[in-house]
Amino acid sequence: MLTAFGKAFKTPDLRKKIFFTLAIMGLFRFGSIIPTPGVSYTNIQSCLKQANNGGLFGLVNLFSGGALLQLSVFALGIMPYITSSIIIQLLTVVIPRFEALKNEGQSGSAKLTQYTRYLTIGLATLQSTGLIAVARTPGRLFSGCTYPVIPDASWPRILTMVFVMTSGTSVIMWLGELITDRGVGNGMSILIFTSIAARFPTPLWS
Fold first, then answer.
1. How far apart are CA 104 and CA 83, in angstroms?
2. Which residues contact 84 (CB under 8 A, 6 or more apart)?
3. Pairwise CA distance, residues 7 & 107, whole Å
4. Quick check: pTM over 0.85?
5. What count of Cα atoms within 13 Å lies in the side-chain half-sphere of residue 141?
6. Spatial distance between the Cα atoms of 182 and 80, rounded to a whole number of angstroms
7. How many angstroms separate the Cα of 153 from the Cα of each of 5, 132, 148?
8. pLDDT in tens, 142-177
9. Nearest partner of 120 among 77, 63, 178, judged by Cα
């Protein structure tokens, strides 16, 4: 295995792709710790220390690399894209138009990919709105924590947060496509691995 890694780094083109992929992974993790404007980072950290991160939010938080419960710019992670991909694949069986696009080859796949992107943005808008609606009330996102994680719950502030989180999902899609085109492996799979691997050190240390 070490020999294979050594040979990979000796190949200039492959080495360039590996470093590019690592750089995108680092950028993805960086966006996962930047708090969304309007979120109290101090209160979030206090609530994370007190709350039990189990249940549905804990599971989704795992796939977002801890970004969800921190209400970061990349809080939604790759979940909207995964959900959209599953929905589009199911619709290819139900809707004849989608099935025809699937059978058209590369041009049809490109259109289905475009539909997946549009659906991802729609789902990201809905999910970010729901997440913020839960988080704006102290004690709902973090059971037992009464610190206000969103001190200013005015509509302009909420709309700004929804826009930022939805834009973060768009950036994640773009990063995944960059890895697929110019890096190593499937971009979304790499980002999923990055999110889950980022959560390993904490439970292992515990």
1. 23
2. 116, 117, 119, 120, 123
3. 36
4. no
5. 25
6. 23
7. 50, 9, 10
8. 777 788 888 888 889 999 999 999 999 999 999 999
9. 77
